[in-house]
Design goal:
The chain has about 190 residues and is mainly beta. It has three helices and twelve strands. The strands form two sheets. It has a six-stranded antiparallel β-sheet with strand order 1-2-3-10-5-8, with helices on one face.
């Protein structure tokens, strides 16, 4: 018997495990075709209860929990507690994400000058809705600004996202340009 090409969190229920293996096994090895992986991800569902069995909220933080991992991708549940991510890119990784619980706000940005960014679009995603960001995208994601709450999202990164490779940006403010920081996101 061959081992599964995808490592799956032990708290994932058998039916969801079979769904993940059935939809994503063809794309487990590198090089994976990102558009095909994105289409397969659209058909992956995990309930809020199942996500909570794999992870938890931490007060005022964003916490990531690995649901499944293969050579070509990683599937994460991200728990958002009253916060948003920094403005960031995904280096060379594409990301599909779905809202499992709560509402999420995504703001997309463009480069203004050098490497400073300004918002170009904001949208609110509700439970069950999904979106995709390519490697070139710069965005911020999390609990809607100005609101208290918790949200859970499911993210598929292909290829696997190196968190230390994510660029962290600063937004141009009304008083002038803030210095952009090319920090690393170690959260």
């Amino acid at each position: 018997m061959h081992p599964d090409p995808i490592k799956i969190h032990p708290s994932v229920k058998p039916g969801t495990r079979e769904l993940i293996l059935g939809r994503l096994t063809p794309y487990a090895a590198l090089p994976a075709k990102r558009d095909e992986v994105a289409e397969a991800f659209k058909r992956i569902t995990i309930s809020e209860a199942e996500a909570r069995a794999c992870g938890h909220f931490s007060p005022g933080e964003r916490t990531r929990f690995e649901i499944a991992k293969a050579e070509a991708f990683v599937l994460l549940a991200i728990f958002w507690d009253n916060m948003q991510s920094p403005i960031h890119d995904h280096d060379e990784s594409d990301c599909g994400f779905k809202v499992i619980a709560g509402d999420v706000e995504e703001t997309r940005f463009k480069v203004v000058e050098g490497e400073l960014v300004t918002p170009v679009a904001t949208r609110r995603l509700k439970s069950g809705e999904s979106a995709r960001s390519t490697g070139e995208s710069i965005h911020r994601l999390g609990v809607p600004r100005g609101e208290a709450g918790q949200s859970i999202t499911l993210h598929l990164y292909c290829p696997i996202l190196g968190y230390d490779a994510m660029g962290i940006y600063r937004e141009v403010d009304e008083a002038g340009m803030k210095a952009r920081s090319r920090q690393r996101d170690h959260a």
